[in-house]
Design brief:
Layout (H helix, E strand, L loop, with lengths): L11 H11 L3 E3 L6 E3 L1 H20 L3 E3 L4 E3 H4 L3 H7 L4 E5 L2 E5 L2 E4 L4 E8 L4 H11 L8 E10 L13 E11 L2 H21 L6 E4 L11 E6 L11 E7 L1 H5 L3 E3 L5 E3 L1 E8 L1 H10 L16 E6 L3 H15 L4 E6 L3 E6 L2 E3 L7 H10 L4 E6 H6 L1 E6 L4 E6 L3 H26 L1 E3 L3 H7 L4 E5 L4 H11 L2 E6 L7 E2 L6 E2 L2 E5 L3
Amino acid sequence: MATTLTSRAEDYSQRYNDLVKYADLAENSAVRGCMIIKPYGYAIWENMRDILDRMFKVTGHQNAYFPLFIPKSYFSKEASHVAGFAKECAVVTHYRLKNWENWEIIVDPEAKLEEELIVRPTSETIIWDSYRNWIKSYRDLPLLINQRANVVRWEMRTRLFLRSAEFLWQEWHTAHATPEEADAEARKMLGVYSDFVRNFMGVFHYKGEKPEHERFAGAVATYTFEPMMQDGKALQAWTSHNLGQNFAKAFDVKFTNQNNELEYVYATSWGVSTRMMGGLIMAHSDDHGLVLPPALAPIHLVVVPIFKTLEELNEIKAKLQPQLDQLSSIVIHSETLGDYLIPVKVKIDEDMQKSAGRKFNERELKGVPVRIAVGRRDLEQGQVEIFRRDTLEKSFVQIDQLAHTVQELFLDIQQNIYKKHEKFTLDHTSTANTYQELKEKVESWFVLAHRDGTNETAMQIQDELKATIRCLPFDLWEEEWVDPLSWKPSKRRVIYARSY
């Protein structure tokens, strides 16, 4: 199966599609633009979801659920919001069929809805309509609510995990008493996302603020971090938004402050989606298949016994089981969670219909972090062969040292995956002082270049180079220079890149 993968050098885009298919992560559904997430892919997503859920609850947030259908009138209350989503909205106009005759489905014209319903593209409008009833006083604030849901954005060009008409995500919607508290919340939760992506996904990234023309519809500030994929493109899958008072004013959400005065609340929203799966695939995988960080892998260790009879299989299992039983948890240190324990999941591949070579290839394709191969001769020598997926290295380990070695190997793999992606990103980040330099480098690099601050210049670069400003990095110092296109003065660089 692994030999069917298109190499990264030959066609990176096709190779991504091959990997999603052959690693059994997802497939296209009968509904155009929608996807079916298969059990192995969903197991990875569940690990992501559950860790993030723990992070959110530790920071004081609660889960709730709001309707899939949103009255059309709600969208008209926040003009910039509806403008940002209008072309992607799916609309429900009728609530029943008239009949089904001769295999023809006919909508009942008398069953037209009094008000058309938008299928949820995001939930700000319906949530803020509810918040109007929930928030009365400063004592009700801050209100920190998360929703896990599916959303629909009718994309014309779709790609599994990266862009689909329906996808899964979590969306937080918080309300605060002051603009300072709201902005601090938006920045704090960007830091929580960053913690997860760095320490659990093993992905290096740049943090910063989106320019005005790239903000979320209805936001006064959008914060983001931008990781680099192996083809030099950026992937935006994590954003945090300071919404100011826009939605509070649109839905008349006021509270009585400590001075006994009525005031509109201040809002944030932020979310991550199944695009994270695409980022995980493109950040780490190689020509052999997936490379999964142990923190997120559905299976951490696969044991492939080499046997001819059931007696040999049972002998191998009996010899290894005491060591396998000693494997406990992988300890991942997180700024948000402290030391987070992930129980080790072991799979013994007893399938008698497949050769050992085929089993090796399949597990490499699916990115299992560690593989053990052991036969009767290995037992006689008191050793097993260990293979680590991230470096493709093999070594022999004494059976009585197996648990200790594997336990340490998990942490080494987790750290190595991050360091490898960090090095790749830094090696492919460059600077440009002229337009020609920007044009040449942005094809496959992140480029730090000055910006004059105008939308006109940014849009011209986007049209000509197919590159956008990914963020205004938090950690770059000010320096006097000029925009490479307009030659107008500039005091800081931004990151330009092509993106998914």
